[in-house]
Specification:
mainly alpha
């Protein structure tokens, strides 16, 4: 690999054990699984070496991983149409990527470690329920509420906004149960890389969903609710 102009953080990631990356970078397990890079039992070797062993170009793998990084971005736009576009790309699209991978890892952890006293029995099933609820909720926003808001329909939006607020409350209750099942996304001592990556991903999903709900409830929706807008 020609590293003459490579950023320092990229070089550091190439030298990191692949298992460490799997744990610290939510979403990376899906990349490793697709490329057949062993991050669990073989997780102690550096990403560079793991790629070399498989004949993979480490630069291409690093580029995929870089797209998973989620540093603090620019300020969220306040114009409703732009805010909605931000929600769709930053949260809706991300949740659709997060949940299938979390479900896959949860199934594996529950199967492989079923005799472990701290195994999160029922976690995959709960994540599937969250996914089903989230997909239905996001479809309602994308097909009904968001087009209505973009068209400027204030009076007509009051009822669907109320429905979405109620469903957000349900999402919060689902998150509480998720944290209870996983001991606040804290893996037990000696947990394998898959287990640790699963809980890191759950932690990221929880943070993202909380930020998503906050943005809609407290910044987007009040712009279309006369009583709330009048008091601000």
């Amino acid at each position: 690999m020609d590293t003459t102009f490579a950023p320092a953080d990229t070089l550091d990631r190439a030298r990191q054990p692949i298992g460490q990356i799997a744990v610290e970078l939510p979403g990376s397990t899906a990349v490793f699984r697709r490329l057949k890079l062993d991050f669990c039992c073989g997780g102690q070797i550096a990403l560079q070496q793991a790629c070399d062993n498989k004949g993979l170009a480490v630069d291409a793998v690093l580029a995929e991983l870089a797209r998973l990084d989620r540093p603090d971005g620019p300020a969220v736009p306040q114009v409703p149409a732009e805010m909605i576009d931000h929600i769709l790309t930053r949260y809706h699209a991300v949740h659709r990527e997060q949940l299938p991978e979390l479900i896959r890892m949860a199934r594996r952890v529950e199967a492989v470690h079923r005799e472990h006293p701290d195994v999160p029995t029922g976690l995959a099933e709960h994540l599937e329920a969250i996914e089903a609820e989230m997909l239905e909720h996001m479809a309602k926003e994308e097909n009904i509420l968001f087009p209505m808001l973009k068209a400027g329909g204030r009076g007509m939006a009051m009822h669907p906004i109320g429905v979405m607020r109620g469903e957000h409350t349900s999402h919060g209750e689902q998150l509480e149960r998720l944290m209870a099942l996983t001991h606040d996304a804290t893996p037990p001592q000696g947990a394998c890389n898959t287990w640790r990556a699963l809980y890191a991903g759950i932690h990221q999903f929880s943070d993202d969903l909380i930020a998503h709900i906050h943005l809609e409830n407290n910044q987007l929706f009040p712009q279309f609710e006369p009583s709330r807008a009048a008091c601000c």
